[in-house]
Amino acid sequence: MKDTAAGERRYYSFNQFLKDTFGERVYKISIDAGFTCPNRDGMRGVGGCFYCNNQGFSPNTRKPPASVHGQVEAGAEYLIRRYGARKFIAYFQAYTNTYAPVERLRQLYDEALLHPDVVGLSIGTRPDCVEEAVLDLLEGYTARHQVWLELGLQSCQERTLRLINRGHTVAEFTDAVRRAQRRRDLLICAHIILGLPGESRSEMLASADFLSDLGINGVKIHLMHVLKDTPAEKTYQDGKLKVFTMDEYVNLVCDYIERLDPSVVIQRLTADAPPDILVAPLWANRKKETIARIEKELVRRGACQGARREKSTAETRNSLNGCAARIGTRSS
Question: Environment class of residue 228 by beta-carbon count within 10 Å: exposed (0-12), middle (13-18) or buried (19+)?
Answer without folding.
Answer: middle
